[in-house]
Amino acid sequence: MKIIKFQASTMINEVLLATRNEGKIREFTALLGSVFQRIISLEGLDSIPDIVEDGNTFRENALKKARFISEFTKRVTLADDSGLEVNALDGRPGVLSARYAGEKVLDKENIEKLLKELRGVVDRKARFVCVLALVFLNGSEIVVEGRCDGIIVDDPRGENGFGYDPVFFVPEMDKTMAELKPEEKNLISHRALAVKKLIMCLNELRINNK
Q1: Is 81 a catalytic residue?
Q2: pLDDT digits (tens, 9 = 90+) for 16-35
Q3: What is the CATH number assigned to the segment(s) 2-208?
């Protein structure tokens, strides 16, 4: 968790989500609906150029997106970079999670590549990681991280969620992420845990700046 040069003047009611991913928009809106009066996304903002996510870490990519889009739009911006890290694959797919099987591929293609690489592998431990970067108009920044541990199963299960959710089994829930109801996932997911930390930061800062 990192907070940089936060000032009272950075208190906000509206936030721009730096994503066009429908799944992320849906989850962030549910998780942050009680925090911000208005949540908007990049949907409909066609003038914003694509950002090359060339960082070596989730943190680097999240900050790059949040800083660029905040400067470009003159809006308080929340960006995330998230993905799957598999022990047996030395942390892959990592920052390449969304394009593991290539650029602009379907989720099922990424899953197929992952399962092919894990064929016959005993250690199936993995984790979902989410880094959130919130950038304010005065340059203040909050960066937090959430993690959720799980196991990669052999066959996709469930119809909910997106990305690698169908093959990410959460032992304490005895289900894959894709088998969880949205409200269940929003209690234990990496994205939910990162949002909880973000809310804690904002609440603490509001108290300190009264």
Answers
A1: yes
A2: 999 988 989 999 999 998 88
A3: 3.90.950.10
